[in-house]
Design brief:
By secondary structure, the chain is mainly alpha-helical. It is built from 17 helices and no strands. It has one domain (about 5-440). About 50% of the residues are buried.
Length: about 450
C-alpha cells in the first residue's frame, strides 16, 4: 500500500513535531528574555546565560543524536513491517545514553571555571557562568532521556505525545522562570540567574517523568533491559558515533562564534546571545517539517517506495521555503519590538539590530538545509552527514569568520559565516539526494 504523503498527512506529523521541537530553545530563550530584564547586572547575566547555553546546547546536541538514530532504525523496521524485531532495542539505547550523560555531568561539574574561561569569560560574567551552570547541568540527563523517548515516538510515526510533553515543559519553565527570577514579595526571594537555572531543571525533570509514563502506557516498546545486546546495537552505535563526530564539528562552529563574540565585549556577547537564540528558535520551528522528513523518509526507504520518497522531498522543499520566508517576514515586521523583548540596554540593542537582518534572511536557507538534513538522518546516512559538516565547518565557517573578523566586522562576520556555512551544508544534500533516488524512480 502506497504511503500517504499528502499535505494533511505531512502536517499531521509536522505541526506537533514543530511544537515539540521548540521546547529546548524555548527553555533557553525564556531564560534569555527574563534574565535580560532583571534589575541587577542584566548584561553580565545575559552574557553568562548565552555562554553556558552554548556549552549545554553542545552537550545536548552531541549526545541527543540518539533521537535521530533510534527514529531511523524504528521507522525503517516499521516500513518493512518488522516492528516486533526491534522492540527491545530502545531500552538498551536509553541505558547507554543515560550512563554517558552521568559521566559527562561528573567530569564537567568540578571544572566549570576552566570550561568557561576557555570561552573567554572573565570577571562577573565568569562568576555568573559558574553559578548558572552548576545548577543547570543537573537537567542534562533528563533532557537526554526525553530526546531518546522522542526518537522512539518519531520512529513509531507519533509526534503528538512529544508535543504534549514539550508544551507542558515549556509552560512550566516560563511560569517558574518568572516566579524564581523575579520572586514573589514576602514569599519567594528573587533568585535572578540562579532562579532561571532552577526553573529549567525542574521543567526538564517534569518532561522526563511524563515521557516515561507515556512510553510505558501508550507504546509496545519495553523498557526491560536484556543482557544480550540487540543485533541493531552496533548499527545504532555507529550512527550515534557518526552523529557524535558531526555534532562536535557543529559545535566547533558555535564555539568559535561564542568565543569571538565574548572577546568583542559584554554588549556583543549579549547581542549574540539574543541572535543565536532567535536563530535556533527558527531552526527548531522548521524542525517540524524536518522531523516529518526524518520519520517518513526512513519508513519509505524501508518499504522501498522510491518514487514517493522523491515526491516527499519536493513537497517538503516547498513547505520549508514557505515557512522560512514567513518566519523572516514576521521578524522584519517586528524588528525593533523583538530586540526590546530581551533587553533595554541601548549598547546591546545597537549591536543586535546591526546584524538581526542577516539572522532573518538566513531562515529560508536554513529551512531547506534542515529538511534535507532530517531526511538523510531518517535514511540512516549519518556518515555522509558527518563528512559534510566537517568540511563545511573547516573549509567554510572558520575561514570566513577569520577573514571577515580581520576586516573588523565583528558580529557581522559571525553571521555571514553562519549563513555561508548553512548554504555549504544544504546544496550538497540536495544534489546527493537527487543523484541517488532519481535513477531509482526511472528504473
Amino acid at each position: 500500500m502506497r504511503a500517504n504523503i499528502g499535505f494533511k498527512s505531512i502536517n499531521k506529523l509536522a505541526i506537533p513535531a514543530l511544537i515539540a521541537g521548540i521546547a529546548e530553545p524555548l527553555l533557553s530563550i525564556t531564560d534569555t528574555a527574563i534574565i535580560g530584564n532583571i534589575n541587577e547586572n542584566a548584561t553580565e547575566s545575559l552574557a553568562a546565560v548565552g555562554i553556558v547555553g552554548a556549552f549545554i546546547s553542545m552537550l545536548i546536541w552531541v549526545f541527543g543524536q540518539i533521537r535521530s538514530a533510534i527514529s531511523s532504525i524504528i521507522s525503517q523496521y516499521l516500513g518493512a513491517n518488522k516492528l516486533d524485531e526491534v522492540k527491545t532495542l530502545p531500552a538498551q539505547a536509553i541505558a547507554i545514553v543515560i550512563l554517558g550523560s552521568l559521566f559527562v555531568l561528573a567530569i564537567s561539574y568540578p571544572f566549570a571555571k576552566q570550561i568557561f574561561q576557555f570561552y573567554n569569560a572573565s570577571g562577573e560574567v565568569l562568576v555568573y557562568c559558574i553559578t548558572y551552570f552548576k545548577i543547570r547541568i543537573f537537567g542534562f540527563p533528563f533532557s537526554l532521556f526525553v530526546f531518546a523517548v522522542f526518537g522512539i515516538f518519531r520512529g513509531l510515526q507519533n509526534t503528538y505525545y512529544p508535543m504534549i510533553i514539550a508544551i507542558i515543559g515549556a509552560l512550566l519553565n516560563i511560569i517558574l522562570d518568572i516566579i524564581f527570577v523575579y520572586g514573589i514579595k514576602d514569599l519567594i526571594p528573587a533568585m535572578n540567574i540562579e532562579g532561571a537555572a532552577y526553573a529549567s531543571v525542574i521543567a526538564q525533570i517534569t518532561m522526563a517523568v511524563i515521557a516515561l509514563v507515556l512510553l510505558v502506557k501508550k507504546t509496545p516498546i519495553s523498557l526491560k533491559i536484556e543482557l544480550k545486546f540487540h543485533k541493531e546495537v552496533s548499527r545504532l552505535l555507529g550512527m550515534i558515533g557518526n552523529l557524535f563526530i558531526r555534532t562536535i564539528a557543529l559545535n566547533i562552529a558555535l564555539y568559535f562564534a561564542t568565543t569571538f563574540a565574548t572577546g568583542y565585549g559584554n554588549e556583543y556577547i549579549a547581542a549574540y546571545t539574543i541572535g543565536i537564540n532567535i536563530w535556533l528558535l527558527g531552526a527548531f520551528m522548521i524542525d517540524g517539517y524536518s522531523s516529518a522528513g526524518n520519520i517518513l523518509a526512513g519508513k519509505l526507504l524501508g518499504a522501498k517506495e522510491y518514487k514517493t520518497l522523491v515526491e516527499l522531498s519536493a513537497k517538503l522543499f516547498k513547505y520549508g521555503l514557505i515557512t522560512g520566508t514567513i518566519i523572516a517576514m514576521v521578524g522584519f515586521v517586528f524588528y525593533n519590538f523583538i530586540g526590546q523583548l530581551f533587553t533595554k540596554d541601548p549598547a546591546v540593542l545597537e549591536q543586535f539590530y546591526h546584524v538581526f537582518w542577516i539572522v532573518l534572511l538566513s531562515q529560508p536557507i536554513s529551512a531547506i538545509t534542515f529538511i534535507f538534513d532530517g531526511m538523510f538522518k531518517g535514511m540512516g546516512e549519518m556518515k555522509y552527514l558527518r563528512n559534510l559538516l566537517i568540511l563545511s565547518t573547516g573549509l567554510v565557517f572558520i575561514p570566513v569568520l577569520f577573514v571577515f573578523d580581520y576586516y573588523g566586522l565583528k558580529l557581522t562576520a559571525i553571521w555571514i559565516a553562519f549563513t555561508l556555512w548553512i548554504i555549504a551544508r544544504g546544496i550538497p544534500l540536495i544534489f546527493k539526494f537527487r543523484s541517488t533516488f532519481l535513477p531509482l524512480v526511472k528504473e
